[in-house]
């Protein structure tokens, strides 16, 4: 089943062309890792795919419910179920004093409890310790939806992904 389609997308920052993608389709069983150098446009791509940022040219359509996890963005929800909080080893209420790893676990718990068809994850392992990374991997392996993940952790990508997109020169 087609979940995301992108056509003729271009994104500029100033006069710098960051992304130039003719066509991209994401289907229900796709587990896509996005890789590239820092500043190559990985986060811009995932933000465009998830409708967090509009492209300067072209269009993106999402068919179905999606979730977005980012280490930088504070969630617009503040509570998760006690069951999910226990599973992920966090409090069930968001607290700004949580560690980076606890914040990531909290966001993951919330995202996995919403029966979304696609999950976008921007560097979800960056603040996690070994135990947290294992929880993330196990949870995403059990997740039945499509996954689009940015990570510099090759082991995580090898375990979770069946496709890799490399961003280079837009």
Write the layout of secondary structure elements.
Elements: E1 2-13, E2 16-27, E3 31-35, H1 42-49, E4 57-62, E5 66-70, H2 82-88, H3 100-112, E6 118-122, H4 130-142, E7 146-150, H5 154-160, E8 163-166
Parallel strand pairs: 3-7, 3-8, 5-6, 6-7
Antiparallel strand pairs: 1-2, 1-4
Helix pairs in contact: 2-3, 3-4
Number of domains: 1
- Mean pLDDT across residues: 93
| Second-tier CATH architecture | 3-Layer(aba) Sandwich
Biggest sheet: strands, sense, closure?
5 strands, parallel
The quaternary structure here is single chain
H and E string:
EEEHEEHHEHEHE
How would the global form be characterised?
A: globular
Number of strands: 8
Q: How much of the polypeptide forms β-strand, as a percent range?
A: 25-35%
Count of helical stretches:
5
Q: State the distance separating the first and last CA atoms.
A: 27 Å
- Helix fraction, binned, reads 25-40%
- Derived structural class: alpha/beta
Highest CATH level, the class: Alpha Beta
CATH topology annotation: Rossmann fold
- What is the CA-atom radius of gyration, in angstroms? 16 Å
Strand line-up in the sheet with most strands: 5-6-7-3-8
Q: What can you see in these coordinates?
A:
With 170 residues, this protein is of the alpha/beta class. The protein has one domain (2-166): 3-Layer(aba) Sandwich (Rossmann fold), CATH 3.40.50.300. The protein has helices spanning 42-49, 82-88, 100-112, 130-142, 154-160, and strands at 2-13, 16-27, 31-35, 57-62, 66-70, 118-122, 146-150, 163-166. The protein has a 5-stranded parallel sheet with strand order 5-6-7-3-8, sandwiched between helices. Helix 4 links the parallel strand 6 (118-122) and strand 7. The longest helix is centred in the middle third of the chain and has 13 residues, at 100-112. The two termini are 27 Å apart.
């Amino acid at each position: 089943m087609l979940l995301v389609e992108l056509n003729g997308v271009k994104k500029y920052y100033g006069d710098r062309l960051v992304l130039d993608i003719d066509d991209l389709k994401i289907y229900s069983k796709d587990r896509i890792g996005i890789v590239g150098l820092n500043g190559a446009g990985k986060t811009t791509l995932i933000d465009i795919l998830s409708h967090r940022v509009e492209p300067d040219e072209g269009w993106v359509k999402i068919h179905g419910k999606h979730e977005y996890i980012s280490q930088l963005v504070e969630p617009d929800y503040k509570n998760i179920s006690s069951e999910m909080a226990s599973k992920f080893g966090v409090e069930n209420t968001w607290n700004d004093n949580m560690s980076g790893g606890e914040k990531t676990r909290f966001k993951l718990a919330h995202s996995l409890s919403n029966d979304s068809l696609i999950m976008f994850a921007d560097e979800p392992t960056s603040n996690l310790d070994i135990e947290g990374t294992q929880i993330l991997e196990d949870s995403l392996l059990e997740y039945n939806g499509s996954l689009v993940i940015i990570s510099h952790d090759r082991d995580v990508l090898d375990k979770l992904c069946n496709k890799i997109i490399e961003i280079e020169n837009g």
